[in-house]
Amino acid sequence: MLLTPRLSVLDLVPVRSGQTSADAVAASVALAQVADRLGFTRYWFAEHHNMPAVASTTPPVLIAATAARTERIRVGSGGVMLPNHAPLVVAEQFAALEALAPGRIDLGIGRAPGSDPVITQLLRISGPTADVDRFPDHVADILSLLSPDGATLRLTSGREYPIQATPAATAVPELWLLGSSDYSARLAAELGLPYVFANHFSGEGLERALELYRSEYRPSERHPSPQTILTLNAVVADTADEAEQLALPQLRSMARLRLNRPMRPLETVDEALAAPRDSDADEVIARMRPRWVVADAEAAASAVRTLAERHGVDEVMIAPVAGSRADEPADAASGRARTLELLAAGLAA
C-alpha cells in the first residue's frame, strides 16, 4: 500500500496500569507488525529512562526484536540519546543491527538526555558516556565509524590506528538527527543529514527550524537534498468522541510531566474518565491539545495531509498515543493499532 504522505511510527512503548514490561513490549512488537502490513515506512523506538509509563529504555534491543518479527518496514531509534553513550558503542550496536537486517536499520540520534538530572548523572558515573558539548564531533565520529572504511585514530606516538564498528560492512544504517531547536536543524544541515523535528513533544519553533535546515543545507554524497520528518501525536477512532476519550490518558500523563508531578503508569481510559477534574492539568491539556490529531478517520487523514503539505515534509511520523480500556488484553494495544489502520486507509493513494 502506498501512503501519501509517507507515514511512520514513533513508539515509547507505553506501560499502563495493570500491565507488565513484558506485556508492553509484546504490544509494541505486535503494533510494529501492523505497521509493516499497512505500508508504513519505518518504526522507531524512543530512548527514555526511569519512567513508570515508558518501557523504551534500550532502543537497540527493541530494534533487534522488532526487525526479527517484521518483513519490510525500516526499524530504528527515535532516538538514541548520544550523551548517554560512547560513540563507538553506538556505532557497533547499529552496525550489528544493519548486519542482522540489511537495508532496514535507521539510527536516529538526539542530544537530550532522555531522563531527569539524577538518572543523567547516574549514567555518567556508572558507564561510558559522551560529552554533550562535543555532540557534533561525536555524530561525525559515528558517521566515520559506520562507513565500510571505518575511521582512523592518530595515537600520541604519531602512528595511525584503524577502527571499524564491524569488520566487513557492506551497508550502513541511515543516520538521522532529531531535535526541536535551531541547534539540531543547523547541525543536520551542516553535516548533510536528514532531519526530524520533534513536534510530538514541542511544536514551538517548527517553521524556523525547518527553514534554517533547508536554507543552510550542504548536500552530502548520501543525501544530495534535504530530507525531513515531522512527528505528531495522533489518536484516530471510528468517531471523534471515541478518539477524545482514548486520548485522555496520554494527555493527562503529559500534563503531569509538564507540571513536574510524580509520574506513574499510564491510566486506562476508564481511570482517566473517572478521575476528578484538575484545573491546572486541564490548562496544560488545553495548550497541548491543538497540536495533536484526535479525530475520526476522515478528519485525521485530512489533518495529517494538510500538516505535511503546509510544512513541506517528506514524511509524518505518528506517535499513536491512544489509551486502552480496562478490559482489553494486557499484551495488546487495540486503540493504537486502530489509529494506524484508519490513517493508512485514509491516506492510501
Report the major sheet: 8 strands, parallel, barrel
Gyration radius over CA: 20 Å
How confident is the prediction overall: mean pLDDT?
93
Q: Structural class of the helix and strand makeup?
A: alpha/beta
List keywords for this structure.
349 residues; alpha/beta; eight-stranded parallel beta barrel; two-stranded antiparallel ribbon; 11 strands; globular
Q: How does this model look, in words?
A:
- The structure is a single chain.
- The protein has 349 residues and is of the alpha/beta class.
- The protein is built from twelve helices and eleven strands.
- Helix 3 (87-100) links the parallel strand 3 (74-81) and strand 4.
- The radius of gyration is 20 Å and the shape is globular.
- The N and C termini lie close together (8 Å).
Layout of strands and helices, then pairs:
Layout lengths: L5 E6 L9 H18 L3 E4 L13 H10 L5 E8 L5 H14 L4 E6 L6 H10 L8 H12 L4 E4 L5 E4 L10 E6 L2 H10 L3 E3 L8 H10 L12 E10 L2 H19 L10 H6 L4 H10 L4 E4 H15 L3 E6 L13 H14 L2
Parallel strand pairs: 1-2, 1-11, 2-3, 3-4, 4-7, 7-8, 8-9, 9-10, 9-11
Antiparallel strand pairs: 5-6
Helix pairs in contact: 1-12, 2-3, 3-5, 6-7, 8-10, 11-12
